Amino acid sequence: MIPSTLTPADAQHLMARACLGAEAPLLHSLQGKSAQAAIQELLSLAVDTPANSPTFSSWGSWESMLHNGEMGQARDRLNQEKMTLKQWWMQHLLTTASPLAERMVMFWHNHFTTSINKVNQPNLILQQHQLLRQHALGNFKTLLHAIAHDPAMLIYLDGGMNYKEQPNENFARELLELFTLGAGHYRESDIKAIAKAFTGWTVDRNNNRFVFEAQHHDASGATFLGQTVNDGDQALDVILAHPRTAEYIAEKCWNAFINTDQADPAEISRWATNFRASGYEIKALLESVLLSDAFWATQNRDKLSKSPLDLIVGLFRSQSLPQVPTVELVKWSEKLGQNLFVPPSPKGWAGGAAWITPQSLLDRYSLLSKLAHSLPHATLTALLDPAYQLK
Predict the structure, then answer these.
(1) Cβ of 51: how many Cβ atoms within 10 Å?
(2) For residue 354, what are the contacts with CB-CB under 8 A and spacing of at least 6?
(3) Which of 235, 277, 310, 321: CA 20 to 30 A from 191?
């Protein structure tokens, strides 16, 4: 049941699930408010852009180093720039004044997955990351169109090598299976049609931008989900008009905010209906999720295992801990199984029970003991309780 006024336990649950941890000032401000008022307050916090965005080497710089035979120097610089980007995001996760928005940046990062180890241009990954932040609480339709034009995404899923002379179906397949409809809701012919619609979409690496090469585009039209489309944007609009797209995103929210069990079909239908009626406004979907009986149900409160980022960031945001260099926190997150900007596959991190293995539990306890040694004994004992991994 949705609480009429938030108890300390209710506020902590909301913060843990939606806001990167129970940060004391915000946690206290939410207590005693209605769930509706608390959630509106969180959604009203402006998305904050991280300060001091890093700058990275251009594609021309990499080409020059490789042309001059400076392979070792290029590799070392690339590795350092990757770490710089990871530290930059970790620092923002720890300090953001808009934790719900940053939670959704994490959500979309794991939905529209892109690996820096394949793209190998930190500047393009940063560009995509800022795109996800810009639209994190915005409009999913706008975000979907933007991500389809995103240079890092086109490189990661080989969309930049999709020509009418030799179609590449990688982006088309993941667009349908992982980003919008989900497996089982399209045919192999739909993948081919989508690939055809996106031919000619590629990347100008020197200027970090999307370009359309008409000479490589197949303009003969393709039949997709019973409709004829002539280009990628038309195909995206057909996908967005399909009821299954809203349902699929709603199911992803169920797994992220409720539990990783089978979602309640009636709840998913209600969320999806509201989502589509709003014109795919992400805030409208989050309101449906966070103001649902499922979100507040007692039986669902211990059903999500903390990801490494949830564990590390939540610990620092909720406890008074000595400062630790961000490079160390980035390395700990990687050790625990979540390497920033390097998802294991286009499917992203599996999450849920996959985070908890005998080895990962030992590593988690080691981290908690190392970071929390200065805390009172009772607090440390509570953090080491296995139940802490699930709240």
Answers:
(1) 9
(2) none
(3) 277
d(Cα 83, Cα 88) in Å, to the nearest integer? Answer: 8
Does pLDDT of 337 surpass 90? yes
- Three-state DSSP state, 307: coil
pLDDT at 378 over 70: no
String of b and e for 200-234 (b: at least 16 CB within 10 Å)? Answer: bbbbebeebebeeeeebbbeeebebbeeebebbeb
Distance (Å, rounded) from C-alpha 127 to C-alpha 130? 5
> What is the β-pairing status of strands 209-212 and 201-204?
antiparallel
d(CA 264, CA 262) in angstroms, rounded, equals 7
SS3 304: coil
Of the candidates 36, 51, 41, the residue with the CA atom closest to the CA atom of residue 292: 36
- Residue 254: is its pLDDT beyond 80? yes
Q: What is the C-alpha separation between 362 and 357, in angstroms, rounded? A: 9
Q: Distance between CA atoms of 280 and 285, rounded to whole angstroms?
A: 8
* Residue 247 half-sphere exposure toward CB, CA atoms < 13 A: 13
Q: Which amino acid is at 222?
A: A
Cα separation of 166 and 216, whole Å? 9
Q: Which residue has the tokens 């996800």?
A: 132
Per-residue buried b or exposed e for 345-361, using 16+ beta carbons within 10 Å of the residue's own CB: ebebbebbeebbeeebe
Exposed/middle/buried for residue 171 (C-beta within 10 Å: 0-12, 13-18, 19+): buried
- Give CA 57 to chain center in angstroms: 25
Q: How far apart are CA 119 and CA 62, in angstroms?
A: 13
- Residues 347 and 114: beta-carbon distance below 8 Å: no
User: What is d(CA 145, CA 129) in angstroms, rounded to the nearest whole number?
Assistant: 15
pLDDT at 239: 98
